Predict the structure.
Amino acid sequence: MKKVIVQTKKCRLCNSNKLSAFLNLGNIPIRNAESKKNSETKIPNLKILVCTNCWHVQAGKVPLPEFYKKDYTYHTRFSKTVDNHFRARAKQIVNKFNLKYNDLVMDIGGNDGTFLKHFRVNNKEIKKLCVDPTVKTTYFAKKLGIKIYRDFFNIKNSKIIKSKHGSPKVILCTNTFGAINNMNEFVAGLINVMNDESVFVYENPYLLNTFKGLQFDTMYYEHISYFSISPMFKFFKKFGLEIFDYSKSKIHGGSMMVFVRKTKKNKIQSKIIKVLKKEKDLKFNTMLPYKRFAKNVEKSKIKITKIINNIKKNKKTIIAYGASDRGLTLLNYYRLNSNQIDYMIDSNTFKQGLFFSGTNIKIYNQKKLLTNKPDYIFLTAWNFKDEIIRGIKKLKIKSKYVIPLPSAKIIN
């Protein structure tokens, strides 16, 4: 059998072997959809580690890069919530860095171009480049008129990109930064492509929000790193880069957009000093919050199991909504499958007709709700619950909703 994942043996940031496993999520599939029921694909065990040298949190196993090239099914454009978020972020970045028409904005892991399409000045397009290895997603970015570099970002390709397109004024990397296995090579590539005016902007779920909201479901094979500021501040410093600002948002249960540039001689911003102090005060440089998080994750499993068992005992129907990677971790960790969940709904046409990995639950489009009205809907994509519930209300379906996190509950 061809090897598709590799074990994490050293910290991605500091290269230390002082890695401590604090959370065992059990058997979590690598891909979120399979073409066949009862797929014989081997499901690996996923543990989450923290480096006790620099305190960076990371996955214990990671997929090899080819994973992203062929059958990658996540398309940003299917979520109105994400689209609206990117529109607001694009406007913020344009204003913050006073972008002009001839400035280049490059998006690493730009997917289908949803973020880049919002970069305009007075309704005029800013120069854009989408760097992404996936064929199916970049096809849609190209249709939007965005230039494509269809490959992984690394040292070699950074030189090619700079020679063909010049240095970007802004380099975006939203959520993709957490999917990078070789972080040192990636940042070395950034150095190659940046000039003194370039800014690297990454956005990911913020570890403190992840822990506070018990969002263990953001931990899966595409997410290799889980970010706080302190480890990243030290990491960038060794490359002559500095974190000089950040901006929080509610997207994906609480994210942080971080701004990085070549180190200037100015003092460290007081805003950065405060967040570094906060992480230290909350003891994120000790094992305490990590062990506490793991215990709370175990408790959530007990609560959900009780809710689902009661629904089935009362002979009520329950379906799932959202064939996302978050849902993949949720259902497989909770050990919920087609015995408890009748079917799954997802708006992504590339997933419809497939089976949700590890569960044998078939994925349908929203029309299925009209012919088979469930008593309960388990929101696996609970982080988009407002958008999903609004859409279901328009269909005049009066189901109750099971919200798994941050605390399991049923709402009408």
The first strand starts at residue 5 and ends at 7.
